Amino acid sequence: MSFYIASSPHNHQRRTTATLMNIVLLAMIPGFIAQLYFFGWGVLFQLGVAIAVACACEALCLMARDRSAMMGLRDNTAIVTAALLAVSIPPLAPWWVIVIGTLFSIGVVKHLFGGVGQNIFNPAMAGYVLLLISFPVQMTAWLPPASLASNVPSFLDSLHLFLFQYTSEGYSVEQMRRIDTGTLLDAVVMATPLDHIKTQLSQGLTLGEATQHQQFTGIAGMGWQWVNAGYLLGGLVLLQQRVIQWHIPGAFLGALAVCAIIGSVFAPDYLPGLNIHLFSGATMLAAFFIATDPVSAATSNRGKLIYAALIGVLVYLIRSFGGYPDAVAFAVLLANLCVPVIDQYTRPTTYGYQREER
Amino acid sequence: MAIEITATSRLWNFPGGVQPDERKSPANLQPIQRFPLAPMLYIPLRQHAGAAGELCVAVGDYVLKGQPLTIPGVDNGLPVHASTSGTIKAITEHPLNHPSGLSGLTVHLQPDDQDAPYPHQPIADIHAISQREVLQHLQQMGIAGLGGAGFPTARKVAGARNIDALIINGIECEPYIVADDRLMREHAAKILRGCELLQQLTSAKSVIFAIEDNKPEAINAVATAIAETSSTTIANIILRVIPTKYPSGGEKQLIQILTGKQVPANGLPADIGILMQNVATAYAVAHAIDVGEPLLERVVTLTGEALHHPGTAWAPLGTPVEYLLQQSGFQPSKHQRVIIGGPMMGYTIANLQVPVTKTTNCILAPTASELTPADAEMACIRCGACEQACPASLLPQQLYWHAKAQDYDALKQHHIVDCIECGICAYVCPSQIPLVQYYRQAKAEIREQAIEHQKAEIARQRFEARQLRLEREKEERLEKHRRAAEARKAAQAARAAEAPTSPSAADTKPSAGKGTNAAVQAALARAKAKKAAQEQPDSSASIGPSAAVQAAIERAKAKKAAQAAAPEQAEPVADKGPSAAVQAAIERAKAKKAAQANAESSQSAEPAPENNTQSDKQDAIAAAVARAKARKAEREQAKGNTESQNNAAENERKGKQN
Amino acid sequence: MSNEYATLSKDGLWENNPALVQLLGLCPLLAVSGTVTNALGLGIATMLVLVGSNITVSLVRNFVPNEIRIPVFVIVIATFVTLVELTMNAFTYGLFMALGIFIPLIVTNCAIIGRAEAYASKNAWPKAGFDGLMMGLGFAAVLVALGAMRELLGQGTLFDGAELLLGAWASELRIQLIQFDYPLLLAILPPGAFICMGFLIAGKNWLDLRRKEKLAKQPIAKAQRARVTTVN
Amino acid sequence: MSWIIGISALALMALIAGLILGFAAIRFRVESDPIVEQIDSILPQTQCGQCGYPGCRPYAEAIANGDELNKCPPGGQATIDKLADLLGREAKPLDAAHGEEDIKKVAIIREDECIGCTKCIQACPVDAILGATKQMHTVIADECTGCDLCVEPCPVDCIDMVPVEPKPERWKWQLEQIPIVEMNHLAELGQTQANGSNEAETTKQQQVNG
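^ inputs. structure came back:
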């Protein structure tokens, strides 16, 4: 017999990439359920199609690059990307939207840059931006929360809508988005809280008038606040499991909160406050699931703080003064671009190179 | 600047670190055992950092326990000693206790189970003699750092001046290893005696004894021993209990924990007034001075679930690992690993015949379920876990990219040489990348490049010196020719002056011939005589050898001709090809015949002057031995040079834990 | 001689293409390649400037001191750009308006000053002119390819608005290849230009790599080894 | 009138620019750096002549004058890459016409066959062979560059080029190169103790490669 040669260390902390990704996926469940409850079955279809396309695309890319497809799929990173993209887009967006987005995320943003660990941009967010820029109509067609909607699509209707953009009875997505105001004539097309505020403000109304709308119940708008709460819960689980450190969510939410407070102190009529910023849009999803993507984030703790604070400030700036109602995707991509510089300037001092303090 | 540590002063922390399962029991539950001697001991000549000494015994010699086998070489290495009394059976290459599995020169000692001791040379009072002599004694006793790197203790102490604090390292932070733990429990007093001696040698102002808090028995034993020692013998000795965290036993990390200071890069602890010694080293120092016996054995941890009776044992240096494992009830499984050292920094060995050396503190034989082998390496996801855990504040992930790209300049810029190879980065890596292995290879490559670069520089200088010399010789030759020509001219002119009647230069020769005839004749005769004298010894001295030389030359010529003929044959245009080949073949045959004839003649000639050849042979052997010795000395000197360059690397490797 | 011209054309069109390999002049390249027509217009303009400047630089190269060659080149280029700008203003006003600032910006196109410095200032005018032509053609070809790609993805058409460049008859050239309900707007926007350009470069590299792999290994001729030292 | 203004404006600008240029040309003149030295320090200094030049320095000079970078087999691809980096040229694969990259070797004279002809001494570019006429020669292994120029001149073919022996202190952590050691008696041990369930087959050594 002969002996086994291996390099040290010979023991290992048994937590593989696949395990980490599984925990991330599990932690997304509360937010996902909230989304499912308030915005209908569409989310489920988006998720299913996204995961299927992502896995297929990942396998094809790996084979084209002469890698083992099974080995590559085993780390579950593609599924996480697909899930993040699926929960970011409107539930009833047509099927080809999510297909194009996933293909771009996996094929171009991930594999053309060299596969797992090499992509400089967050794949899900890059895919989202591609879709948002290319198909603005479909990408802003959010449904009203279930309790407000005049028509709540059934499971089959949702599937029909997802595939053909109208129900079996012939209602279009546009009609499904109308909310129940009592009189059919007066029906208004629904927009997300952030979108609504943005439109109303641009029409010269004040913030107080804009938030008169019936969807603004609770802290930050019906449905959205619960979705955000769900992701916050999942994020806390990730923190507790030590899958992520507090630095990124902390700095991101902190920076956003500081900006929001300053803004609402100086222009309370025009700049939404803390509650809206933290519990609307994709804030919590971004804080715990998107910005924390290790591949495209900064490495050192100090770097992470800077990186996440940069995202927070950018999100606030774009939401308040930019052309898009929500800004997480753009902010994350811009911060991704800054990562190499941040990493360069936040290098820890190696042992023995510290200046002697006297 | 001065370091002042009291028993209550704060403890610092170092960045990163991990807390792997300790698994110190059951090996630490049993007292240190003593096995019967192994049937054969393999004592490698080089067991420490530095060059091997020179052999002073021969095969067949009977040696006593503690008798030196080598004497330190040119660079002040350490001698090795016979671990017991017995007969030297062989001195050959034997697998070394080294991760490479390479072999090295080893003395095979067969014990006679008598343990007949070589006279002990204790030092009664170290104040009676100079510090230099004490250090020389320690060197003669073969004391090296027993913590990991095996750096000669005498040299370490000699290099340390103005020491504020002597730190005694009883941390033993790596899982499984309990050798120092047991030693402290059982021999605390002797360790303290070693501390006292080391303090006197270094004139350190204080002694800090550091133990990790997972060894309460050892802490008790040492505390009791300190209380029993009168405070006059050891000034300012403090026992510090350190929180358990890997790798707090690393030299640099322990200094940071105790003092909050960092050893400057490329520097030594002595630069900030600190000297660190392992507890086992302190024990060995006490033994060498008070008993006067060299370092002959050490405590080895024998642990892992593949062993029936894990524990610790006093192992004579040179004991094969296999013997110790068998004594502990070794049950190898299919993919058995045998690790020398702990699970974090130890290395696997492929051959169990390797001996225990001065730095072997643990032999670990785990089962596959106990320490699962690493899975396939996956892609780095830049998670940064390695950076969070790195105790040297390096960027392991960046180092990994650069090591993979073989970008050695970038690696140097990222301070790869400050990596202490503690293995934490690979331990925490979720992608199971063997990071440390990458770094080691890169470091070895960088070291190799430095050596190569230096060699290239020497080659360049030698080449240029040679070019210069050739140039100078050529000029000198030309100058000589010119001078000779001038002299001739002058002579001609003189002759012309002597014979002013000669009408033209053309007539000079015949006319001058007469005048200087005698002189020329004389010169010619001289030259001839000289030539003859030169030729005579050659031809007369060795007709046989010259024939052999002729034959050899002819053989080589024939070979060359054959080689030359081959390509000619291949050429399609050469119609002469075949004939040339035939020619060559004939020539070859002729040469062969000639060679045979020569050989025959030399064979027939040989028996006659037998005495002569014998003495010749002896002479030749003597000459060859002298040559070989000279060469060895040369090589060693060169090696010593490279060694001294490697010293920096060695120093940094000293940061290994026990 | 003809061999040299062949090398020049191969270099300009493929091997050393200013846009795909040297990555020069990307600013106008990315900015105005939204449609084939715009791309073709700018491509032709750049090519004309390149030919003119190369010939002129080559002609004056022996009279220009080395220290001030770059200012001189810039003046020469600026002259030709102004000529082209005025011409386009006169004959293709619609396109002139569509291209806007990017016509004067040709002055700063590094491909042009690059060729002037690297080639024209060292070679005779016929060769320099030919080099300019080939580099210009290569640049224009990439522009048109990029324009076609983006127009197709973003509008589903080709040669939309060709009448701006070629006169009224050219409106017939417009081809509607695909009817999109929702075109990929990204392709028309600047980021789309970068992404498409990346694909073009990747495609070129891929073709080159495949061709290289296909080339059979040629037999190696053994080189003469020098003896460092003499053997006596 | 306007053309006068145009021309004089241009002339004035040209004058100012000319002054600045003139100043810059004098003030910021670049001293030619000893590029040959830099190239020479990258070359491996084996002085083997495989590049077609008599020594490394002549080749360095040739490179500085525009010769190809890929003619140095002892340096291999690493040297080519470094040279390409230094000179801003394209790194090409090693020109096989000049030989191929080989492991490091050192010359050894079989001393009992040496006839003391001194031909190898004259051939050695770095004076790494010791000896005298009619005396046995020997190679200073540490100085030998492995150029093999001494092999050919030897009339009795007594010089071997042998690969440099690996030493533990210069080992490069190539775990995959450690030979498999079969230990049969241990296999038996394992078998008996595992009640014969453990086959005595020799398991292929598995290794983790860095």
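Chain B touches chain D through 59 residues (CB under 8 Å). Residues 33-364 of chain B form a domain with the Rossmann fold fold (CATH 3.40.50.11540).
thumbs up if we can close this ticket
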